[in-house]
Write a structure and sequence with these properties.
mainly beta; 24 strands; 4-stranded antiparallel β-sheet; 7% helix; 39% strand; Neuraminidase
C-alpha cells in the first residue's frame, strides 16, 4: 500500500511537470470561472454562421436557407429576402456569410452555400448587395468542380486578407484523393478577387490542368478560416477523421498532406493510408487535436475586454461542445489551450468578434451568447 501510494504520487508529479513544461513560455490564460456565457437569444433554427453589420446588428445564416438580421438591443430578428436556393442535406445548406471589407460604402456581402445541380451538389460562392432586409444584384462568383451526390465536407468558410483578397475553404466531399489533385477544387483553399476573378499571382496559374483559383491543397474539411491581421497570416481550422483536427497556417502553393498525412485514424479504428504524420514537401499543422473536438468557425480576438487574450484564436467545437481558446506561444513553442463553457452542453458552431471588440458565439441548438469577463480588471 505504501509503495502503491508513493508510485501514484510520483506519477502525479511527472504529469504536473510535463504539463508545466508544455506551457512554459506561453502567456497566461484568464481563469475559466472568470469567463461566463451570457445567453442573449435561443430561437434560431440550426444556425451556421454569425457576422456583424454594426455593434447592434448581426447577420445569422440557418442551414435550411434562411438569412436573418438580429438586433442585439431589442432581441428582434428580421428575415432577409432574395437568398439563393440552397440544398439543405447532410452537412450542406446555407453556410457562411461575410461582409465585404468596404461594406459601409458598398453594402456588399458574400454567401457560401450548397448548390444543387443535375450531377449532385457542390460549394458555391455568391455576392449581393444588402438593401435594408433585401438581397439585390446577386452574382455567382465561384462554383467548385466537380459535383457529388454525397452530403459531406463542403468546407464553405470565407475570409479576407489585408489587401481585400477573398479566401474560401472547400472540403474534400469525402473523396479523399481529390485533396491532392490540382484538377479539382475539393480539399483546397481558394483565393479570388472580390469580383470573382483570379489574382495574377495565384500559385498554380499556368500549371497544366490545375484549377487557377487554388491557393493551397491537401485539406480535409476546413470549417474555420480567419485572417490573423495582427500577424499577417491566414489560419485554417479543419476536421480530421477520428482524431487529428488541425490548425494550419496557410501559405501559397503549400500541400497540407491530407489524406497522405494525418494524426487521426479511420472511424473503424485503423490507420488512414500508411498511417504517417510526416513527409518531405508537406506541411505540419501548427496544432492538432487528438481526440477530435470537431471544429466549426474561428476568429482572432483583438480586444482588451478579455484579459491576456488579445491576438488569441477562438474556435467553436461541435463534438466536444465547448469554445476552444488557443493562445499562441510568442517563443515558438506549443500553443496553450483552454476549453470553455462545456457545462452548456451545446454544439458551438461559430464564434465572431463584434466591431466593438466583444466576443459572441452561436450553437447548433439555436443559442446566441456573448463571452463576458467577470473578474477584476
Amino acid at each position: 500500500m505504501i509503495y502503491h501510494a508513493t508510485l501514484n504520487t510520483l506519477l502525479s508529479l511527472m504529469v504536473l511537470l510535463l504539463h508545466s513544461f508544455a506551457l512554459a513560455g506561453s502567456p497566461p490564460l484568464p481563469e475559466q470561472e472568470q469567463l461566463t456565457a451570457d445567453i442573449i437569444y435561443r430561437g434560431f433554427d440550426r444556425p451556421w454562421a454569425l457576422e456583424f453589420i454594426d455593434t447592434e446588428t448581426t447577420v445569422v445564416t440557418e442551414k435550411r436557407g434562411k438569412l436573418w438580421l438580429f438586433n442585439l438591443e431589442d432581441k428582434s430578428k428580421t428575415e432577409v429576402s432574395g437568398v439563393p436556393a440552397v440544398r439543405d442535406h447532410g452537412q450542406g445548406g446555407l453556410l457562411d456569410v461575410a461582409l465585404d471589407p468596404e461594406h459601409a460604402s458598398n453594402k456588399a456581402l458574400y454567401l457560401c452555400y450548397t448548390h444543387q445541380g443535375k450531377k449532385g451538389s457542390t460549394t458555391r460562392l455568391a455576392k449581393a448587395t444588402l438593401e435594408k432586409n433585401h438581397l439585390q444584384k446577386l452574382q455567382v462568383l465561384f462554383t467548385a468542380e466537380p459535383y457529388f451526390t454525397t452530403g459531406r465536407h463542403y468546407g464553405c468558410r470565407i475570409a479576407f486578407d489585408q489587401e481585400g483578397l477573398l479566401y474560401l475553404s472547400v472540403g474534400d466531399r469525402g473523396k479523399r484523393d481529390l485533396a491532392q489533385s490540382l484538377e479539382s477544387h475539393n480539399g483546397k483553399i481558394i483565393r479570388l478577387r472580390r469580383d470573382g476573378t483570379v489574382p495574377n499571382d495565384n500559385p498554380f496559374i499556368g500549371k497544366q490542368k490545375a484549377q487557377p483559383e487554388i491557393y493551397s491543397f491537401g485539406h480535409r474539411n476546413p470549417q474555420g478560416l480567419v485572417y490573423d491581421g495582427l500577424r499577417k497570416r491566414l489560419i485554417a481550422v479543419e476536421h480530421g477523421p477520428q482524431g487529428g483536427d488541425e490548425i494550419n497556417i496557410v501559405h501559397a502553393g503549400k500541400n497540407y498532406g491530407w489524406p497522405i498525412l494525418t494524426y487521426g485514424k479511420e472511424y473503424s479504428g485503423g490507420k488512414v493510408g500508411a498511417g504517417i504524420t510526416h513527409q518531405a514537401g508537406m506541411e505540419q499543422p501548427l496544432y492538432h487535436y487528438t481526440p477530435s473536438i470537431a471544429p466549426g468557425g474561428a476568429d482572432i480576438y483583438t480586444g482588451d475586454a478579455i484579459p491576456d487574450a488579445k491576438g488569441d484564436l477562438f474556435v467553436a467545437a461541435l463534438k466536444l461542445q465547448h469554445l476552444n481558446h488557443i493562445s499562441f506561444d510568442k517563443t515558438g513553442g506549443k500553443p496553450s489551450e483552454q476549453r470553455l463553457f462545456g457545462e452548456l452542453n451545446q454544439r458551438i458552431r461559430d464564434v465572431k468578434q463584434s466591431p466593438d471588440k466583444k466576443l459572441y458565439f452561436i450553437t447548433d441548438q439555436g443559442w446566441l451568447a456573448q463571452v463576458k469577463y467577470t473578474g477584476t480588471p
